[in-house]
Structure formats: C-alpha cells, structure tokens
Protein: Helix-turn-helix domain-containing protein
Amino acid sequence: MGATEGRLSSEDRREQILAAATAVFGERGYAGGTTDAIAREAGISQAYVVRMFGSKEQLFLEVARRAVGRLEAEFRAVISQFSGEETMLERQSALGRAYGELVADRGILLSLLHLFGLGHDPVFGPEARDSFLGVYRLVREEAGFSPEDATDFFARGMLNTILLAMRMPDRKEDPMAFELLSTSMGPQCEAILALYEDAPARA
Amino acid sequence: MGATEGRLSSEDRREQILAAATAVFGERGYAGGTTDAIAREAGISQAYVVRMFGSKEQLFLEVARRAVGRLEAEFRAVISQFSGEETMLERQSALGRAYGELVADRGILLSLLHLFGLGHDPVFGPEARDSFLGVYRLVREEAGFSPEDATDFFARGMLNTILLAMRMPDRKEDPMAFELLSTSMGPQCEAILALYEDAPARA
DNA sequence: CGGTGAAGTAATCAATTGATTACCTCTTGG
DNA sequence: CCAAGAGGTAATCAATTGATTACTTCACCG
Structure:
C-alpha cells in the first residue's frame, strides 16, 4: 500500500481506506487503531481519512459491516452448492473451508473479533450482537445445521480466530503450539500457516 | 466499590485496584480502558493508580497474570479431584464447571480475551501466547485430555467467552439467541444467565 | 483558455490521557 | 509531643489523537 499511486476516484480511494482500516483495526482493535495509522497505511493524509467517513466510529462501523458481509457472502456461496445429499461432516468441512478462505484477508476476521469485544458499547454492542446472530441464523436455517452442529462450528471458528489474533503461528516450532494449531485448524492448517508467513508484522 | 472506605493498607489497596482494573480492562480492553476509569471504579485518584503500578502497561500485565493464575488454579483444583475412573465426558464437564465458576468474576475471562487480541504487541503478544499455551499444557498433560478433546474444550470456552463479551445474554428473549446461548453453555446456562442479570452495565 | 468542482493536504484545535511532582494528612513509636 | 514514614491527592505536563478549516492542485468541459 505504498504512496506511489497518484489521484484516485473517490470510490477507489474509499475502498483503499477501508482495506487499510480493516488491517489496522484488525491488529489494534477499535480504541487502539488510530486514524493516523490508517492514513499512513493507505498513503494519504489523516485528515482525508476522517473526512471521507465522517468519523472514526463511522469508519469502524463500515469496516465491521463489510467484514460481516464478506463472511456471509462466502458462506452463502458454499451453501448454494449444497445438493441435499451431503453428510453433515461434508457440509461442516465445506463451510470450514469458506472460513479458511477469509484468513487470507486476515483483517476481516480480526476486526470482527474486536467488534465482538465491544458488547458494552452503545453503538458497537448492538451491531456485534446483530451481526453474530445474523451469521448464526444463516448457518442454522440456510445451511441446515442443528443447534449442536452450528455451535460446534462457531466454537471452532472462534478458537481459530483467537489463535490467529494472538499470533500463535509464531510459535509453530513449539510442538505443543503446533499440536494445538493443527488440531484446531484441521486439514487447512498447512495452507493457513503458509499464508501466515507473509504476515505484515507492521506492529 | 464506592468511595466510602477510608485509608487502606498498601496491600489491600493494591488488591482493590487490581479488581477495578480487571473490570475496566475486561469491558473496554487495554487501549480503551483508562487509568482514570479504573481510579473512579476504585474510588481513589488517577495518580495513585499509576504510582502504585508504575505504568498502565505494568498494571495490565498484572491483571492478565492474575487472571491466568485464577484460571489455572480453578482447573488444578478440579483436576486434583480426578480419580482416574471418570469417563472423558465427566472430566470435560467438571472442567467446564470450573470455567463457569470464573464467569462470576466476569472481568477475568474478558480481560484474558482482550489480552489474546494483542498478539501483535511486543510485550503483550508473547505474554498472550505463553499464557494460552500454559493452560493448554495443563489440560493436555495434567488433566489427561487428548489433543482433540482439549481443542474442543477450548473452542467451546472461547465461544462462551465471546458470547459474554458481546453481551449476548441481553438478547436472551430472542429465541435464536437463547438457543445459541443454551447450546453453547450447556447445563450451566441458567446459572450464568442468572449471574449475568446483575451486570454492572457501567458502560 | 478559464473556471469549476472534485481530490487531497498542511496547519491547527480541543480534548483526552498517562505520567510526574509537590504537597497534604494521617498513624505510630520513642 | 513530635518526627517520620506510609497513604493519598491536586495540579499540571507533554504527548497523542480525532476533528476542523482553509487552502492547493489537478482534470475536464464549455
């Protein structure tokens, strides 16, 4: 995301800022992510970040809504392929792979995790609950998961996301950590660890 | 935690500040939790909070270490009761109850969750990974869980913690939310929801 | 051309916040 | 009593940060 690009259309710039904000909020959370860090990541001025979205709060809301949108879109794409002939296990791993795809755009899942930590907030709290329930409803009703299967699926997803948030892959040489990572992430473990190698490490 | 108490010994005051900090950091996270909010919660001056612990960073470190300590202590207490005759399911629900106990002191689990979100941080990142691996090791080696059982156990714990962090119990009248809560928390659901009623809501 | 509107920024502001300092106020032992 | 040390705070600082404003630059159209 260097500063090498010249002028962009409002629409393109908007996308670029959203991408930068997703990365920054994903790493630092809402309170910890500054509009200045986002601006630097996008190669523009801090003033423009704020002006384009009105406020940091609005920007985070858009980041969160995009993230949920991507998650739901990815799930729906998989669900639409269901024939009704699959075993439950097949459905579960298909959705699991969809989830795995999202790891590539790491900020998406991490931003959502940070959103979920803001339940106390009068703005983000309701947003978090609505978002989570929306995805749960999707998996229950459209993917046809039982309450137990859906809960297991989300539980595993949350553990995987937290392992990424804490950068557990940094410890993959530790046998205990590797066991945990590969047990939790299952067959996608290798792919995810590989993806993770090019971690920005823009701490 | 009113301001009704007079002078306390350094030791008592320290405990009180740690309790206040656990609650505040649990709700707002590290970046979002101010030393001033902690001071108000403890009924003392902001200056004293900082002076007692040297820095906000040190304070959060102590909060996090205490939280992990409590979690491990609770687990060890349960594990020490194991006879070697239980089924795996019995062991799992015994540890699950131990986890449930900690919900009473809600800040503990939520502070840990926020710690886990700080994997990028040069100080808190390593702390988070060490802490998590320490508890995992405990469950694997001392409680005798297989990698799969341990992973399932942690996955469920993470989902439960996130549901608390996002205040999903506020939505318990929504059938979908209630289904999710009761499926994830299992038999302890009622007790946890009851505990949650007296949520401080000190947003 | 020239001017008009969109893209973008430098400069600056006001509020917040972690930290520091100098001071106050009890208690307690000699 | 009184000195000394521990508990504790008011006042203040410097840095950070989200937001605002006035300005600049550039593309394009008539």
Summary: Chain A has a mean pLDDT of 94. Chain A touches chain B through 51 residues (CB under 8 Å).
